[in-house]
Amino acid sequence: MAKLPEHVPSKSAKMTDRETQIFLASLSQAASDVELVMDALLPAAESQIIEAMRYAALSGGKRMRAFLVIESCAIYRVPDKQATRVAAAVEFIHAYSLVHDDLPSMDNDDLRRGKPTVHVKWDEATAVLAGDALQTLAFETLTAPQSAPDPNTRLRLIRSLAQAAGATGMVGGQGFDIAAERSRAQLGVDDITELQGLKTGQLFRWSAEAGPVMANLDASAMAEYARALGLAFQVWDDVLDVEGDPAKTGKRLRKDATAGKATFVALLGLAGAKQHAAGLVDAAISALDRFGSPAENLRRAARFSINRDA
Q: Which of 78, 87, 124, 186 is the most buried (most CB within 10 A)?
């Protein structure tokens, strides 16, 4: 079993009830704000494809990517109306990715957030087309001046989202995952760190960078925060896959162990994975030092990543 350097968490200690309440209220508000925008941007349900799009995009979820967009935009004083549209765009991409990930040819899941997945509720063809349409809607959303008045800023957002979601980002990570599973390759910690940095981390990074990109300022601190945060989330997802409650997570658990897939828990053990996640949270919080109190919600998000049960 792989070993990590000893780490004593200092900034990622268990959240108090009060901190958790404050964070969850902020997360809920961000979700409500962006879902109103998503609902308005989605076509009216006039066909099965559109009905499936709306089902996939508006069926709940933490909306963490939207939260990161909104909070990073607040730090850089980007107007709320622009922030929520950009947040909606990344949530459309995330929704499309989940629809496709759940397909029988991918992860073959029949539950998502406690509800039937799109291909189960309808069929595979509908799921593929609904996912495709959600992806294109994300880019359509970013082309509008309401998302960012400067056309060069819109181009930066579109180009960077295409890269984060494409073959060198999220899709590449999914391909890496499938190839490793089919070959039965023995992945190490560095391998799954790279895999999850693509599959999950790239959209986290894009979301956290939205504020400085829209303000035309340096995004390196936000990129470092998001890198550590996205990986902490994934490590904790591996923890929850082992000791979580399906009633709270809303999905089938322990499927990775059953499939023999490499996870942080499999490689590091349960205690080692938790230690690794705590170290990543400390790194995420340290990346925010320059921002002071305006970044407190992002610090809470980092702590929440390893203090959640779903």
A: 87
246-272: buried (b, 16+ CB within 10 Å) or exposed (e) per residue? eeebbbeeeebeeeebbbbbbbbeeeb
Count Cβ atoms within 10 A of the Cβ of residue 190 and give its class: 0-12 exposed, 13-18 middle, 19 or more buried: exposed
Closest CA to 107 of 242, 253, 267: 253
Residue 75: both structure tokens together: 């730090």
Alpha-carbon distance 27 to 99, whole Å?
23
Residue 8 burial class via C-beta count within 10 angstroms: exposed 0-12, middle 13-18, buried 19 and up: exposed
Query: Contact 93/203 with Cβ under 8 angstroms?
Result: yes
d(CA 6, CA 59): 40
Predicted structure pTM score:
0.91
Distance in angstroms (rounded) separating the CA atoms of residues 302 and 282: 8
As given in the structure block, the two tokens for residue 173 are: 């990570």
* pLDDT (tens digit per residue) in 267-281: 999 999 999 999 999
Question: How far, in Å, CA of 242 to CA of 269, rounded?
Answer: 11
Quote the CA–CA distance of 170 and 90 in Å, as a whole number: 12
Cα 225 to chain centroid, rounded: 14
Q: Which amino acid is at 99?
A: V
pLDDT tens, residue by residue, 166-193: 999 999 999 998 888 888 768 899 999 9
